[in-house]
Amino acid sequence: MKMFSRKMFGALIILLALTGALMMWSISPVESRNGLAPVTPTPLTTPRARPPHLAQAPAISFIDSQTPMCYSSVTETGVCYLQWNYLYVTASASQYIISMTLEINGDVRAYHAGFFQTTMYIAGEMYNPGFKVVCGLPGAGGNPLLGNAYNYTIRARETGGLSATNYGTVTCPASAIHFNLPAIYR
Predict the structure, then answer these.
(1) Looking at residue 34, what is its pLDDT?
(2) Which of 146, 179, 173 shows the shortest CA–CA distance to 80?
(3) Residues 41 and 69 grouped into a single domain
């Protein structure tokens, strides 16, 4: 068996060095051809960022919540309650839930913080009897038979910096406060 000559060994070293340089160049920041700022690949934009079986999976948390119910426990008081059966959020792979907030008409009504947990489950009983709101007069929310309509937003954040949002609108039954004033004679 014939050994490599010094010239062949030198050529092999140069070829390996060029191959390594080409590989380093292909993964280093690339300048765009139209003169814009250089583009740096991120872990989520590189082709091998996710395993093939998770390629189509979402990269954000998932929130599961049913449409809340608005009810009035005592009629003709003008007081209604928004209540969910449960709120559930799941973090994406290898992430943890940081927090989950519940807003009603832009006001934060509940805040839950996570501590090294991949899921967060909030039972509806934690909010019993629900979040107190004004029922409203008939037609106040746009439907002539119902009362006020309330927008809700559920937000969850995870350790990877991503977030998920679930939102909707719920309409309450119409209820007005009736006062019976005594007749006072002079």
Answers:
(1) 41
(2) 173
(3) no
